[in-house]
Amino acid sequence: MTLSLLVYRSESPARTSFTPFALFMGVAMSVTAFPVLARILEDRGLSKTTLGGIALTCAAFDDVTAWCLLALVIAIARADAMLPAIITIAFVIAFITIMIFLVKPMLARLAKLTTDDERHRRGLVALILVFVFASALITEIIGIHALFGAFLAGVVMPATAGVRDMLKARLETLSLVVLLPLFLRSTVCACKLLY
Q1: What torsion, rounded to 10 degrees, do the Cα atoms 151, 90, 74, 159 define?
Q2: Is 21:8 a contact under the CB 8 Å cutoff?
Q3: pLDDT at site 161
Q4: How many CA atoms lie within 13 A of 4 on its CB side?
Q5: Which residues contact 11 (CB under 8 A, 6 or more apart)?
Q6: Rounded Cα distance, 135 and 13, in Å
Q7: Measured on CA atoms in the order 175, 176, 177, 180, is the torsion positive or negative?
Q8: What pLDDT digit, counting tens, does each position of 104-134 carry?
Q9: Is the CB of residue 156 less than 8 Å from the CB of residue 128?
């Protein structure tokens, strides 16, 4: 956040007040590139080691914290006054609470019902994709970025190996070949628009 004192005048977009700019700088500089770290550990054969597990756990905790803080910053930045920001923050807290304490146990029970039947697995993948997109839409409606909802949907997914392996086998290629380049390209375009 101290860096924002030096770069606010030269780097901030027009009509951006100092508080959201400084908060965003603080959060942005603290975020771990979790997918990049996970890929590096996997490529080096460290993802199944104790050190790799510790690194991924710390990075995941850091990312969850940073995304929650980023949601707060976005709520403050998008609100014209403090009351809308407080309302948005209240909706975000309610959404996180519902996802963790209601949706996560429901998904865990649903994952236990998964059988080896291919039709059930296809239905589960479709249901999970709908859930991720719905979570993204809800956070966009609340007033924060859709990425936060999709990220939170991933956080509450069942951690059982069967579900994780099934999703990885069915979605990894699509994610790496199509979605990751689109995300990186949209990030570059967003940065160009800011500057």
Answers
A1: -10
A2: yes
A3: 64
A4: 17
A5: 195
A6: 29
A7: positive
A8: 998 888 777 665 667 777 777 888 889 999 9
A9: no
Q: What is the DSSP string of the chain?
A: -HHHHHHHHHHSPTT--HHHHHHHHHHHTT---HHHHHHHHHHTT-TTSHHHHHHHHHHHHHHHHHHHHHHHHHHHHH-SSHHHHHHHHHHHHHHHHHIIIIIHHHHHHHHHT--S-HHHHHHHHHHHHHHHHHHHHHHHHHTS-HHHHHHHHHHTS---HHHHHHHHHHHHHHIIIIIHHHHHHHHHHHHHHH-
108 contacts: CB under 8 Å, gap ≥ 6: 158, 160
**What residue ranges do the domains of the chain occupy?**
1-78, 88-195
Tokens of 48: 């199944």
If 0-12 CB within 10 Å is exposed, 13-18 middle and 19+ buried, where does residue 152 land?
Answer: buried
Per-residue pLDDT of 19-73, as tens digits, reads 888 888 888 777 767 777 877 888 888 878 888 888 887 887 777 677 677 767 7
Report d(CA 28, CA 3) in Å as an integer.
12
Evaluated on CA atoms 119, 174, 111, 42, the torsion sign reads positive
Per-residue HEC secondary structure of 146-157 comes to: HHHHHHHHHHCC
Give the mean pLDDT of 146-168.
80
